[in-house]
Structures are given as structure tokens and as C-alpha cells.
Specification:
- There is one protein chain.
- The N and C termini lie far apart (60 Å).
- The protein is α/β, with parallel strands linked by helices and 192 residues long.
- Helix 6 (139-152) links the parallel strand 5 and strand 6.
- It has helices at residues 3-13, 20-32, 37-48, 85-94, 112-123, 139-152, 178-186, and strands spanning 52-53, 60-61, 75-82, 99-103, 129-134, 158-162, 189-190.
- The longest helix has 14 residues, at 139-152.
- The radius of gyration is 20 Å and the shape is elongated.
- The strands form two sheets. A five-stranded mixed β-sheet has the order 4-3-5-6-7. A two-stranded antiparallel ribbon has the order 1-2.
- Bound molecules: zinc ion.
- Zinc ion binds next to loops.
- Zinc ion (ZN) binds at residues 54, 56-57, 59, 65-66, 68-69.
């Protein structure tokens, strides 16, 4: 096999959810479609390098402030705290939420800088806010939720809520079907 193709195969095989067989098929498609699909892919991959984390919420963004944070039609008195971008995408896919996000992007515990940034985003507001703690239904996620609750409890201008019905224990938000996630979101309850 040609070494470039071998290299490409290796890269694709290392991607999540792609085995060697899928990797080989993708390679073949790319080699066969160099003038169309592959050209577009190369352009998009180059553009990827300008994606950073939003200064306010840690969402992916090509600007300092992401599209969600800078969208004035969204409710800026609601912040939904999620573990990762996959959770943000899952909630956005439901189309049921029009507030802001805060993405933790950390494994199991919160660094001091993350805590400070999160607290700052709440402290800067004068209005009453709803903070939705939407962690994955895993042991780590629930431990994080309890911890976040403990650090935000002292704020008087917030109501803490959490997702309700229907999310099976052990599941990550990205894998939950949209209907279930929509119901869990709509029936969210105060985090007691
Ligand atoms: Zn943002």
C-alpha cells in the first residue's frame, strides 16, 4: 500500500468509533474524490486550527466569544453547566433550550481556574438566574453535580435546577435520544 494511504489509514483507524475497515473505506473515497470531497475536507481541516475555546463558556469558537454567548436573542439569565461539548451539542439538538452554557471540559474534578471562571460568570449578573446542572448520568457526573451545587449554593440570585425524568443511570448525554433528553429538560426540577 502507498505510504500516504497507509498513513491516512492509521490516522482514521485511531479516530473514535472507526475501525480499520471503515478507515480503509474512507481512504478509498478520499482518493477517488480528490477534486471534490477531499478538497473540501482539506480546506475545513485547515480552518479547524482557528477554533479555540470561548472566553466566557469554553464552547468551541473561532472568535473570542462564541455564537451562543454573543446571541442576544438567547436568555442570558439561564446558564446550563455541562461536562463537555458533546453534551452541549446534544442539548442544542433538542432545540428546547435557549439559554447560555458553561462547559467544564475537565475529567472528574474542577480546577481552581474553572471554578473561578464559573463563579465570575454568575457574580457579574445582577438579575435572578437559573443555573441548570446537566451532568452525565454517570457516577462521575453526579459527583461533579453535587460538588458544583456546593460551590454555588451561597449565591442568592440563582435557582439551581437539574434534569429530571428519563435519563438512565450510566448514560452520557451524547447517547441519549433527543426525545428523552427533551423531556428531561422540560421537566427539570430544583436541585435539592
Ligand atoms: Zn461562549
Amino acid at each position: 500500500m502507498h505510504s500516504t494511504i497507509e498513513k491516512l489509514n492509521k490516522i482514521f483507524s485511531s479516530l473514535p468509533s472507526l475501525g480499520p475497515r471503515s478507515a480503509r473505506r474512507i481512504c478509498l473515497t478520499l482518493v477517488k474524490n480528490q477534486e471534490t470531497l477531499t478538497k473540501e475536507l482539506i480546506k475545513t481541516l485547515v480552518a479547524l486550527s482557528s477554533i479555540k475555546e470561548c472566553d466566557l463558556c469554553n464552547n468551541f469558537s473561532e472568535k473570542k466569544i462564541c455564537d451562543i454567548c454573543s446571541d442576544l436573542s438567547r436568555d442570558h439569565d439561564q446558564i446550563c453547566i455541562v461536562e463537555d461539548i458533546l453534551s452541549l451539542w446534544a442539548i442544542e439538538r433538542t432545540g428546547q433550550y435557549n439559554g447560555l452554557f458553561y462547559v467544564l471540559n475537565e475529567e472528574t474534578s474542577l480546577s481552581n481556574s474553572t471554578q473561578e471562571k464559573l463563579i465570575k460568570s454568575i457574580e457579574n449578573k445582577e438579575s435572578h438566574m437559573e443555573i441548570i446542572i446537566a451532568m452525565n448520568s454517570t457516577i462521575e457526573g453526579q459527583a461533579l453535580a453535587t460538588y458544583i451545587k456546593s460551590i454555588l449554593r451561597s449565591f442568592e440570585n440563582i435557582t439551581l435546577t437539574t434534569l429530571a425524568l428519563g435519563i438512565p443511570m450510566g448514560s452520557q448525554m451524547d447517547y441519549i435520544d433527543q426525545g428523552t433528553l427533551t423531556i428531561a429538560f422540560k421537566t427539570r426540577k430544583e436541585f435539592s
